[in-house]
Amino acid sequence: MDFLIHLAEGFIGMFQEGGKTFLGLAKGILPTLICLIVIVNALIQFVGEERIFRLAQKTTKYAVLRYTIFPILAVFFLTNPMCYTFGKFLPEKQKPAFYDSAVSFVHPITGLFPHANSAELFVYLGIANGITKLNLPLGPLAVRFLLAGIVVILIRGLVTEWITNMMMKRKAAEAANS
């Protein structure tokens, strides 16, 4: 009987802690996220979607821009998961690499721009919690996280594009031999 009581108390305790966490978020990060989302959407409306689309097409011309600037703009302006729709500006052979770059960038951006991927903010906040317990500032961590992310998305984009090209050539060769 004591086991069931302990189990029930632990079970409800889990939800009570979840409620405390939720209230902490509602007082802290949620208002910030809402403001950021409003500002980003207003900026897109102010600049104009057509101009944003033209800029997106220009940033896909070169591989270095295609796997750095392009995913950064996509994640910042459209946030996760809408950022992947920027792939529509690319030819089919470049879409897998763009997706790989964009999906790899939704975590590193959260330190400076939490609106971009608020659903995964817990990853950054877990690391940030340890940093703040050491009485260290979060700014340098967020910047390093972002810069490391840019290097990673470039490498992933280039490697995935190379693999995709190899696979497409192999498939074309197999189709020609059939």
UniProtKB/TrEMBL annotation:
GO terms for cellular component: membrane. Keywords: Membrane, Transmembrane, Transmembrane helix. The chain crosses the membrane at residues 22-44, 64-87, 141-159. PROSITE patterns: PTS_EIIC_TYPE_5. The keyword Ribonucleoprotein does not apply. GO terms for biological process: phosphoenolpyruvate-dependent sugar phosphotransferase system. The keyword Metal-binding does not apply. InterPro entries: PTS_IID_sorb. PANTHER family: PTS SYSTEM GLUCITOL/SORBITOL-SPECIFIC EIIC COMPONENT (PTHR40399), PTS SYSTEM GLUCITOL_SORBITOL-SPECIFIC EIIC COMPONENT (PTHR40399:SF1). This is PTS system, glucitol/sorbitol-specific IIC component. It comes from Seinonella peptonophila.
